[in-house]
Amino acid sequence: ELLAEAVELFISHDYPRHFKTIKGALKNGDPDEVASGAHGIKGPAASLGATALQALAARLEAAGKENDLSAANETLAFLETELELFKNVSRQSGLLTEEINNGSNIK
Question: Is residue 96 within 8 Å of residue 6, measured between CB atoms?
Answer without folding.
Answer: no
